[in-house]
Design a protein that fits this description.
single chain, 149 residues, mainly alpha, 5 helices
Length: 149
């Protein structure tokens, strides 16, 4: 099991990009699965840091960096998916009422802006929070000695 937690970092980077791309595709551009996968990211990053570093002061920044990296990947994917629709906000001829986003705020333009903020900004932040929460729970529940299998 220790070999699973001590994979080379470039393998983890490629796996992260691939997994988050597939999850974004399964969610059809809505990163609900990416946010849920943030819990797995927090668990894995904590177990990896426990396997690689004995000092707790070295573990915590590594966990945070990996969580930030995964949220950054989700941000980049969301910008690639939804970023091209940002100019529609300033186009008076754009048919925002029939774009397909939920009409949360009753006005098509304001609802569209809210949808883009939710997809591009808030979703990666929620993934980061899910990763940090999961890492915190894993730090409490799993002792580093349990990795010596």
């Amino acid at each position: 099991m220790k070999k699973f937690f001590t994979l080379h970092y470039w393998i983890l980077i490629l796996l992260s990009i691939l997994i988050f791309t597939v999850l974004s595709g399964i969610g059809m551009g809505v990163p609900v699965l990416n946010i849920l996968f943030g819990f797995v990211v927090g668990w894995y990053s904590t177990r990896r840091a426990q396997a690689l570093y004995r000092d707790r002061k070295k573990r915590l920044p590594k966990i945070f960096i990996y969580s930030l990296f995964c949220a950054g990947v989700t941000l980049a994917i969301m910008l690639a998916i939804w970023g091209r629709t940002i100019p529609m906000i300033f186009d008076p001829a754009a048919d925002l009422a029939n774009f397909g986003h939920p009409m949360i705020l009753f006005d098509p333009r304001i609802s569209f802006i809210g949808w883009l903020v939710l997809m591009i900004v808030i979703s990666p932040f929620l993934q980061l929070m899910a990763s940090i929460f999961s890492a915190f729970i894993t730090l409490i529940a799993v002792k580093p000695e349990s990795l010596k299998e």
